Amino acid sequence: MSEPLLFSSLPLSEAMLANLESLEYKEMTQIQAESLPIVLRGDDIIAQAKTGSGKTAAFGIALLEKLNVRFFGTQALVLCPTRELADQVAKEIRRLARLTHNVKILTLCGGVSIGPQIGSLERGAHIVVGTPGRIVDHINKGTLKLDGLNQLVLDEADRMLEMGFADDIDTVLAACNENRQTLLFSATYPDNIKKISARCQRNPQMVVVETIHDQQKIAQHFFELRDSNETHPAVLTLLAHFQPASSIAFCNTKQGCDELLSYLRDEGVSALALHGDMEQRERDQVLVRFANKSCAVLIATDVAARGIDIKGLDAVINVDLARDSEVHVHRIGRTGRAGESGLALNLVVQKEVHKINRLEDYMGQSINLEVLPHSDKKSLPSPTMVTLNIDGGKKDKLRPGDIIGALTKDAGLPFEKIGKIDMFDFAAYVAVDKSIARAALQQLSDGKLKGRKFRARKL
Questions:
Q1: By C-alpha distance, which of 307, 50, 205, 31 is closest to 197?
Q2: Cβ neighbours of residue 173 under 8 Å, at least 6 residues apart?
Q3: In this model, does residue 397 exceed pLDDT 60?
Q4: CA distance linking residue 55 with residue 211, whole number of Å
Q5: Are 432 and 388 within 8 A, CB to CB?
Q6: Which of 97-106, 213-222, 246-255 has the lowest mean pLDDT?
Q7: Cβ contact 419:432 at 8 Å
Q8: In this structure, are residues 33 and 171 in contact, taking their beta carbons and an 8 Å threshold?
Q9: What is the DSSP letter of 449?
Q10: Which one-letter DSSP state was computed for residue 373?
Q11: CA distance 248 to 316
Q12: Quick count: other Cβ atoms within 10 Å of Cβ 145?
């Protein structure tokens, strides 16, 4: 795009344009500029775009513009691979709907009780955002009717297929109104995406947004190792040398994640692993602790980390090189966002050097293999924050202000020592500086919030 395209150039309602203005959404991103005109005129679309490209607003605006708020049946469904992504998508659509009256947006994901969701569906929902498994549960129970659906969005369709949701997607498609509009968003475009498009779309328009991240902002290093036995000590060396306060270490298998976690913890590194088969509460806790800077290293597979958007990530460590070049670029694109410089540290076992040639061709740049730097293990990065868990949340009418008040007003602790607060339905998490952790925990355990006592513990 040579000139910026403005949202005001689109045939949008006055309420939507006013809200976009209030959100300071003026110029469209590339995916928005290329897809919104197609979607608004009612055509199906296949959009190849990465996380962080503005794709949620691209389909969110279109869904809201076509909504009949007087009809409380489900008119739009957004399928996402993970609960984290579904929560992000629903949050963004709610922001876009702020000036559109009486819009009900419902999130339906696994890992929580289905009962309250059934109650919410009985009261009606215009837009449903959810994960395939839980959506299928509701279809089978007859609690979610999709025969009046006008629009279906498959968000990050490639990952849904990678995670084994193909049968669930077919079940959803079979339950949908055949005359709907189908919007398919995918970071990659493999053959299985072409097949699913052929089954569920009519003459889709193709939009491809450049998937290569801004390499200028990301400093990449490739360190050659003789064999895989050197991998774990090499990760330790990189952490000590580069001192990233916050880094994601990517492994290709769950077993690889477990083994690296055990090694790093034995060496005194504050690390957590993210697994696809974790209980939802455990998964929430891991993500909260990593995002609020009370854990230095998150170890994950590509599937487990999909849909997670961590701001201020200092480094990505590719413990195992990604199986294909496009995935590699998506991994390293998690660092160096929002104009900041990023760091990508890659370990290359000698037998995998052939992957470097493919990467060079894909990224259009030459790669030099380096020798690992020498580092002192004593200088390993250590988080300054600690996470405290309160057994009460939004359903208990708790708000972040209640927690801040208890720590600052009641306990007299300094406000600047309190970090990120995350609120869930029945749990709250607050990051505090290590220097006040004991006093903060004592206040939350012995004192009251909203006139009630809640259990609190250090994670």
A1: 205
A2: 152, 199, 200
A3: yes
A4: 13
A5: yes
A6: 213-222
A7: yes
A8: no
A9: B
A10: P
A11: 5
A12: 14
Which tokens is 265 given? 């913890």
Q: Which residue has the tokens 């779309």?
A: 201
> How far is C-alpha 27 from the chain's CA centre?
24
For residues 128-144, one letter each, b for 16 or more C-beta atoms within 10 angstroms of the residue's C-beta and e for the rest, the string is: bbbbbebbbbbbeeebb
pLDDT given for residue 335 in this prediction = 84
In whole angstroms, how far apart are CA 15 and each of 7, 36, 37, 101, 453?
A: 13, 17, 18, 9, 43
End-to-end CA distance of the chain: give it in Å, rounded.
48
Sign of CA dihedral 355, 359, 362, 364: negative
38, 20 contact by CB (below 8 A):
no
CB 245 within 8 A of CB 367: no
Tens-digit pLDDT profile for residues 117-135: 999 999 989 999 999 999 9
Percent of the chain predicted with pLDDT > 90 = 56
Q: What is the CA radius of gyration of the chain?
A: 23
> What DSSP element (H or E) covers 389?
strand 385-390
Alpha-carbon span 454 to 459, nearest angstrom: 16
Reported as a single tens digit per residue, the pLDDT across 140-185 is 999 999 999 999 999 989 888 877 788 899 999 999 988 999 999 9
Residue 258 is encoded by which pair of tokens? Answer: 């477990």
The closest alpha carbon to 59, from 186, 147, 192, 168, belongs to 186
Residues 6+ apart with CB under 8 A from 288: 387, 420, 422, 429
- Is residue 101 scored above 70 in pLDDT? yes
Mean pLDDT in the chain? 89
Within 10 angstroms of residue 52's Cβ, the number of other Cβ atoms is 15
Strand ranges (DSSP E) for 133-180?
A: 151-154
